[in-house]
Design brief:
Layout lengths: L3 E5 L6 E3 L2 H13 L7 H4 L22 H18 L4 H8 L2 H5 L5 E3 L3 H10 L3 E6 L5 H7 L8 E4 H4 L6 H10 L5 E6 L2 H9 L5 E3 L9 H9 L12
Parallel strand pairs: 1-4, 1-6, 4-5, 6-7
Antiparallel strand pairs: 2-3
């Protein structure tokens, strides 16, 4: 692909969903039962464990289709609703609508400096690859948000079957990138993004988009460290 590649996290790094997962559950419930009165804080406890990325040491190659991936999450959503006081019938109905609400592109926002960061690095010769723990519809979200043209490849845990920080998803990203000579990982999660990449010898940059300088520190660091040592196959 190229000698210089930046691996990017997506959610929380380049863009975010208003209300996140708990917001999508509340929206789905309001569709089924308007005026239910359940708020994001009510469903939050039930979502603290049960997503694939909560068990990154365990692969899920069996969830190899979007429907299978979402079907596996239905019990989690129902549990969150029931824990918030919703009856079983309404909980099941709302759980079936979470997918449509979570992937509604109108609820997603690209951080103000994301495009500028991607374009500045691209002008300097860096190619971009997404490495994300996400839903199967990530490619569609990137397209609808106008971000897809900036990326040479998208490595999505829902399709790869492994979650960050597991080495296998990073290995998949390096393979898709053509085993480049120079690689950076940029993300907002110190464990999934940074520690996961560093375990394979990939330097990582922790960012806080939407606050302070956003992605500017990452761009400056990547552009200023032109002498970054090449990553040898033995280090991977």
């Amino acid at each position: 692909m190229t000698g210089s590649v930046v691996l990017w996290d997506f959610d929380g790094t380049l863009a975010f969903r208003d209300g996140r997962w708990r917001g999508s559950l509340v929206e789905a419930l309001d569709e089924v039962a308007p005026g239910q009165g359940v708020v994001a804080a009510d469903v939050r406890p039930g979502l603290r464990d049960g997503f694939p990325w909560h068990r990154p040491e365990t692969g899920h190659p069996d969830l190899n289709s979007p429907d299978a991936w979402w079907d596996a999450l239905q019990p989690l959503f129902v549990k969150a609703y029931v824990g918030a006081g919703v009856d079983d019938r309404r909980a099941a109905l709302a759980a079936g609508r979470v997918r449509a609400h979570y992937t509604d592109v109108s609820r997603w926002t690209v951080f103000p400096d994301s495009l500028a960061a991607l374009e500045e690095l691209a002008e300097a010769g860096w190619l971009h690859v997404i490495v994300s723990n996400h839903v199967p519809e990530l490619d569609g979200l990137l397209r609808d948000l106008g971000l897809d043209r900036h990326f040479a490849a998208v490595v999505n845990s829902a399709l790869v079957g492994w979650e960050k920080p597991h080495p296998r998803i990073f290995e998949a990203a390096l393979d898709r990138a053509g085993r480049p000579e120079r690689v950076w990982m940029v993300g907002d999660n110190p464990v999934a993004d940074i520690a996961g990449a560093q375990a394979l010898g990939i330097p990582g940059i922790l960012v806080t988009p939407g606050r302070d300088d956003g992605l500017r520190p990452a761009v400056r660091r990547i552009l200023n460290e032109r002498g970054l040592p090449e990553i040898s196959p033995e280090g991977l």
